[in-house]
Structures are given as C-alpha cells and as structure tokens.
Write a structure and sequence with these properties.
Elements (H helix, E strand, L loop, with lengths): L13 H15 L26 H5 L24
C-alpha cells in the first residue's frame, strides 16, 4: 500500500505564498514519480479559536527578541496557527 501525505499550508500574504511554493518545489523535485501537486486556493477567513484573533493576527505570533535562533536550529512555538 502506498503512503500519501497531505500538507495544508496557510500563509498571510503573497510573499509567504511564493516562499512556501518554492520551498515545496525545491524539496519535492528530488522525489520520484508522483512527487505531488500544489493547489493554491484563497482562504476567506481564519480564526484562532482560543484567542478570537482573526485573519493575519491568527496566522502570526509574538516574537521573543531575547531568543537567538541559529540557522541550523529548529524553533517551534507552542502557539501555532492551528492551536
């Protein structure tokens, strides 16, 4: 049985949309046949249920300026757009 993966990515503006598309292209091109397809569709509204934030506010997070992030480290927020 083949394994399939579906990614749903929501971004707040066209700049992030293009970055997301290019990242997917670069990383999927090396895969064999069946690398996948991208659908780009508008999202009418987003709401973070816990806080009531909507649209771009629901897709962003506060950045702690005291944290230094190095390019070789992964940084994951507990408060993601899906939380």
């Amino acid at each position: 049985m083949d394994t399939y993966v579906r990614l749903d990515i929501v971004v707040s503006n066209d700049t992030y949309k293009e970055l997301a598309k290019e990242s997917i292209r670069v990383n999927a091109r090396e895969l064999e046949k069946g690398s996948g397809k991208m659908w780009v569709t508008p999202v009418l509204e987003v709401e973070r249920i816990r806080t009531g934030e909507t649209n771009e506010d629901a897709l962003s997070h506060a950045v702690d300026s005291t944290i230094t992030i190095h390019s070789n480290e992964y940084y994951t927020h507990e408060d993601t757009p899906s939380s």
